[in-house]
From TrEMBL, chain A:
Protein name: Growth hormone receptor a
Residue stretches making up the Fibronectin type-III domain: 176-279
InterPro entries: FN3_dom, FN3_sf, GHBP, Growth/epo_recpt_lig-bind, Ig-like_fold
Keywords: Glycoprotein, Membrane, Receptor, Signal, Transmembrane, Transmembrane helix
Start-end of Polar residues biased regions: 573-585
Compositional bias segments (type: Pro residues): 657-677
Source organism (scientific name): Oncorhynchus kisutch
TM region(s), chain numbering: 286-308
Length: 693, 233
């Protein structure tokens, strides 16, 4: 009996379920009516497991015994109620093994609804004829959201064997979807895998369009011979993609649906078969890699061959040789060995036209009357940056020059007798130094104007200067346009000074500060005035300076002075000192040679006048060199400029070669240079080497 | 609670700005109280879609909560209540027809009003349910979160339905309900079977009513799109 009771727990419960009254409400109580729960089962959620355990333990002996003693007795019970579309539902029962209840009509299905007015059990409206033991509730008898209770009742015995309560929406098991089909999405590149898209349609009985039913679908697939279905995630739409199927394998796919959130899945649809045959590999990767390897090797071999065969050329292309210094159009051999005459000739433009194409003579007979406009142009930055030493610059233009005319007082603010036209007194000293160097060489090249700090914005650029070197521009060149062609690099080779007049005398100064120039000397005696550092202050003193300068210019035609500007010293030689120094007598070169700080006594008054101007510029130490003209050789008349002949041991420049009796006190002269001949002004490297620093 | 709601809606509005621009304005559109006005104009169809989304989500979450609660607290024999006469959910003030045909004949106005009544009737019980669940010792976090989420979404659903009614029926008489923290009517100890069953009943009834709301709204939508076929069955 124990086994019997244990083996049929459900029936036992149902047998005791007789006290249920359909009308009574369900009142929560420890022992709900109609449901017999043993005390120890009430609070034990796992009592089912104990049931099963006992079953297992007892099943074998008890079962067989019970079978022997009692053939399987099963009470009539309701097997279930289901709705397909939430509009109708059916209930099925089983009569069990009770012998006396197997005849039809012995058992009835009775039901009632919560909202019934009569509160009585009603007979099943429709016992279906086709299916045995089925009760069908049609649309008219079906309501939703209202509790139904269905019971299996035997009238004759007045006994209810089973009861089932539910609401319509809880028993919906939708029909299977229809029209399940699949399409191939893609095949992997290796040809081993592919993806498909399975699509279907909702069951026709489900009224999805109206929204009466909202379905969720579940797709399952498996390999043909496997027993385990792979379940995919629930899908709300009517298609699902399946990834990772293997070619050559046969698959089965099926789908079923449930009402959303109720999880009572309906029956499965028909199974469809998916199969994609294997695709033979059109190409295997092995030859491709082989080809690639061979190709790479071949290319490498080719490259090597090219390199080895064209080695020389490649070396030239990759590592171009450093070009030797040369001047365009001039044979480097000329530069080496001191063939200066020829070089000068060439450079003067009379030679090849590749050189600077200035018209060879310009200024010789052109009266120079012009007004200089002093503009505060900034010198070009490129030219400002040149910071090479002044001595080198000047030495580059030194001894071989006759400083005819090429030296304009570039920024020589005062004592500018004989300064060329368009001379700008505002130029900074460095620039003037540069310009002077350039002018010495008298090349129509550019010169880096700044020897030192050239950042005086107030000082006009070199543009204003128009150096009437051969080949220079016309006098009417605007000052700022004059630019750099006036300023010439010291690299510009030596220029023949002979018979060139590069300078013009300032014949007059207008009250407004313009300078009136007159043509310079025929003989290329460069006229120069001792220069000094000049700055704004110098310009401010403008008017009287101008007059002074002009006067000085007029008078001092001879002398070039070498000014070594020391910070403490004014760094300039005045007109008087220049005058003093400018003796045309070459025999007394010593007097010409001045180095600062010791200025001459006569020059002092002038110096003092200019001292404040010059001391302001004391921060740069660039020696301010005025080439001194070797007077006697060239210039019967006054010459204001001197070529720097040499540098003595004190870093002072020798403007005139010392006379033989004075030679011991002077630095050795460059041996290769004949003094009477005005050097062209090009210092060859070997000559320079002879100069002691 | 209102402030939180408003804040949440503002945050969502900011985050979903591009969506909002394309889809319209979120449901939280309280014009009458001078609170945050996020509505500019939204078409009826989009609003209805939004409301249906809400109803569907609420229904799904309520079903999940019911299942969770059942598994955790309800003894096995009482699950699904197959064999019981059933519990009685709180009766509503109006009878709701049961059959599909009857329901399909309900007018738009009636559908919307019944949805609104359903929503409004469940706001307070859900809040009560939250407090009760908090007293359970081992209530899973997900359950608590779900019930909290549902009660919040119910409020926004209510607002949406109010706006929908105003738009579709030109009925301006409705006001949204204001939640007030009420005293819990039952002060029973938690985890006693009675309270467990009561809560279980509550959840099940709410699940049913959520299903009702969803169905009504979907029927309404069907009528908006294709009036003829919706009345056919």
């Amino acid at each position: 009996m124990l086994c019997f009771s244990l083996s049929q727990p459900r029936g036992k419960h149902k047998l005791n379920y007789t006290q249920f009254h359909p009308i009574s409400k369900f009142v929560p109580s420890p022992h709900p009516r109609g449901l017999h729960i043993s005390p120890n089962e009430r609070f034990d959620p796992h009592h089912r497991w104990s049931h099963i355990l006992c079953l297992v333990l007892c099943s074998s002996p008890c079962y067989f015994v019970s079978l022997l003693l009692y053939p399987s007795v099963q009470a009539p019970h309701l097997t279930g109620c289901k709705s397909r579309e939430q509009e109708t539902f059916r209930c099925w029962w089983s009569p069990g093994s009770f012998q006396n209840l197997t005849e039809p009509g012995a058992l009835q299905i009775q039901y009632w609804k919560k909202n019934d007015l009569t509160k009585e059990w009603k007979e099943c409206p429709d016992y279906s004829s086709s299916v045995k033991n089925e009760c069908f509730f049609n649309k008219n008898n079906t309501v939703i959201w209202i509790k139904y209770c269905v019971r299996l009742h035997s009238e004759s015995q007045n006994k209810t064997y089973d009861t089932l309560c539910f609401e319509l929406q809880d028993i919906v098991h939708p029909d299977p979807p229809v029209a399940l089909n699949w399409t191939l999405l893609n095949i992997s590149r290796s040809g081993l895998n592919y993806d498909i898209m399975a699509s279907w349609e909702p069951p026709p009985s489900a009224d999805v369009s109206v929204g009466w039913l909202t379905l969720v679908y579940e797709v399952q697939y498996r390999r043909r011979n496997s027993s385990h279905w792979k379940v995919l995630e629930h899908e709300f739409g009517t298609q699902q993609s399946i990834y990772g199927l293997q070619t050559g394998e046969a698959y089965e796919v099926r789908v079923h649906c449930a009402m959303r959130a109720f999880n009572h899945f309906g029956e499965f649809s028909d199974v469809i078969f998916v199969h994609v045959p294997e695709i033979p590999n059109k190409e295997s990767t092995f030859p491709v890699t082989l080809v690639l390897i061979f190709g790479a090797v071949g290319v490498a071999i080719l490259l090597m061959l090219i390199i080895f065969s064209q080695q020389q050329r490649l070396m030239v292309i990759l590592l171009p040789p450093v070009p030797a210094p040369k001047i365009k159009g001039i044979d480097p051999a000329l530069l080496k060995n001191g063939k200066l005459d020829e070089l000068n000739f060439i450079l003067s433009g009379a030679g090849m036209g590749a050189l600077h194409s200035y018209p060879p003579d310009l200024y010789q007979d052109v009266p120079w009357v012009e007004f200089i406009e002093l503009d505060a142009d900034e010198p070009e930055p490129g030219e400002k940056d040149n910071q090479s030493s002044d001595s080198q610059r000047l030495l580059g233009h030194n001894n071989h020059h006759t400083n005819h005319g090429c030296f304009h007082g570039l920024s020589i603010p005062d004592d500018d007798s004989g300064r060329a036209s368009s001379y700008d007194p505002e130029l900074p000293d460095q620039e003037t130094l540069m310009l002077m160097a350039a002018l010495l060489s008298c090349q129509p090249n550019k010169v880096e104007p700044c020897l030192g700090n050239c950042s005086h914005s107030s000082t006009p650029s070199l543009d204003v200067l128009e150096v009437p070197c051969p080949g220079l521009q016309a006098p009417d060149l605007p000052p700022e346009g004059g630019e750099r062609h006036l300023v010439q690099t010291q690299l510009g080779g030596p220029q023949s000074w002979v018979n060139m007049d590069f300078y013009a005398q300032v014949s007059d100064v207008t009250p407004t500060g313009g300078v009136v120039l007159s043509p310079g000397q025929q003989v290329g005696a460069p006229e120069n005035t001792p220069t000094t550092k000049k700055d704004k202050k110098g310009k401010m003193e403008g008017g009287e300076e101008e007059s002074e300068e002009e006067e000085e210019r007029r008078t001092n035609k001879l002398k070039f002075q070498l000014l070594v500007v020391a910070p403490e010293a004014g760094g300039y030689t005045t007109e008087s000192s220049g005058r003093q120094m400018s003796t045309p007598d070459p025999s007394s070169p010593g007097e010409v040679y001045h180095t600062f700080p010791p200025p001459s006594a006569e020059s002092k008054p002038h110096q003092e006048a200019y001292l404040p101007a010059t001391t302001l510029l004391g921060d740069y130490q660039s020696p301010y060199i005025l080439p001194d003209s070797p007077p006697a050789q060239f210039l019967p008349p006054v010459s204001d400029y001197t070529v720097v002949q040499d540098v003595d041991f004190q870093h002072s420049l020798l403007l005139n070669p010392p006379s033989p009796q004075r030679s011991p006190t002077c630095s050795p002269q460059p041996p290769s240079k004949p003094l009477p001949v005005m050097p062209i002004g090009y210092l060859t490297p070997d000559l320079l080497g002879n100069l002691s620093p | 609670m209102n402030m939180m709601q408003v804040m949440q809606s503002v945050v969502w509005a900011v985050l979903l700005w591009p969506c909002l621009v394309s889809l319209g304005v979120p449901l939280e559109c309280k014009d009458e109280q001078g609170s945050i006005i996020l509505c500019a104009s939204i078409s009826k169809e989009k609003l209805l879609d939004r409301v249906i989304q809400h109803a569907e989500l609420i229904y799904r979450v309520s079903e999940e909560s019911c299942t969770l609660f059942e598994e955790m607290f309800v003894p096995f024999p009482m699950r699904s209540q197959r064999n019981q006469a059933g519990y009685t959910c709180a009766t509503k003030a109006f009878p709701i027809p049961g059959s599909k045909s009857e329901i399909q004949q309900i007018s738009d106005k009636w559908l919307l009003h019944s949805v609104l009544i359903l929503v409004q009737s469940w706001i307070e019980p859900l809040v009560y349910l939250q407090t009760t669940l908090d007293r359970y010792d081992d209530a899973p976090d997900t359950l608590l979160k779900k019930t909290k989420w549902v009660s919040e979404k119910l409020l926004s659903l209510e607002q949406g339905v109010v706006v929908l009614i105003r738009k579709m029926l030109d009925d301006d008489m409705l006001t949204t309900s204001y939640y007030e923290q009420g005293v819990a009517p039952y002060a029973l100890q938690p985890e006693v079977l009675e309270s467990v069953l009561r809560d279980y009943t509550l959840l099940s009834c709410f699940k049913k009513d959520a299903h009702k709301m969803e169905t009504f709204l979907k029927l309404l939508k069907c009528r908006q799109t294709d009036k003829y076929s919706c009345f056919l069955h």
